[in-house]
């Protein structure tokens, strides 16, 4: 669109709209941090089980396998493979206080990493927690 505009004022307006407004905030700015928290909240609200992971992380791979074995659907956000993954990870660590992956949320609540997930599964609580999300019609 800008390529077809010969008027400097129009080009400047479009530039400001696209790059200085909250539509496409500069990563690392206060606006983008706020937007990343909004993105995080939206992601957590979409699915009963949400995992922030990295594709090469052994604990993340075990998490995926455990959930598959338990037939529990989950949304995985592979931070090392997505645009803005570092910024989303900063928002996640800010929320949880943890700096490692995987970071697992059930019904929008942080439950921990793979060890905590395994403990929930071993105690028989994992399926109950996930079913509770559906029972309360949160998702």
Structure description:
53% of the residues lie in helices and 12% in strands. It has a 4-stranded mixed beta sheet. The protein is an alpha+beta fold. A hairpin with a 2-residue loop joins strand 3 and strand 4 (109-112). Helix 2 crosses helix 4. It is built from 6 helices and 4 strands. The model is unreliable at 16-27 (pLDDT under 50). It has one domain (2-135): Glutaredoxin, CATH 3.40.30. The radius of gyration is 19 Å and the shape is globular.
Name the CATH superfamily assignment.
Answer: Glutaredoxin
Number of helical elements? 6
Beginning-to-end CA distance, first to last residue: 39 Å
Order of helices and strands: HHEHEHEEHH
Number of DSSP strand runs: 4
Mean pLDDT: 82
Overall SS class: alpha+beta
Largest sheet: 4 strands, mixed
Subunit organisation of the chains = single chain
What gyration radius follows from the Cα positions, in whole Å?
19 Å
Low-confidence stretches: 16-27
CATH class call: Alpha Beta
- In the residues, how many domains can be counted? 1
Helix share bin: 40-55%
| CATH fold annotation | Glutaredoxin
CATH architecture: 3-Layer(aba) Sandwich
Strand content: 5-15%
Task: Using the alpha-carbon principal axes, give the shape.
Answer: globular
| Strand order across the largest sheet | 2-1-3-4
């Amino acid at each position: 669109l800008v390529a077809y505009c010969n008027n400097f004022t129009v080009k400047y307006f479009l530039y400001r709209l696209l790059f200085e407004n909250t539509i496409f905030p500069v990563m690392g700015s206060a606006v983008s941090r706020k937007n990343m928290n909004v993105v995080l909240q939206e992601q957590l609200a979409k699915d009963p089980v949400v995992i922030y992971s990295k594709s090469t992380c052994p604990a993340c791979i075990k998490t995926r396998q455990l959930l598959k074995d338990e037939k529990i659907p989950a949304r995985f956000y592979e931070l090392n493979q997505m645009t803005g993954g570092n910024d989303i990870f900063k928002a996640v660590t800010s929320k949880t206080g943890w700096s490692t992956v995987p970071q697992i949320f059930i019904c929008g609540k942080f439950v921990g990493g793979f060890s905590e997930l395994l403990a929930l599964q071993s105690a028989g609580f994992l399926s109950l927690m996930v079913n509770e999300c559906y029972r309360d019609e949160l998702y």
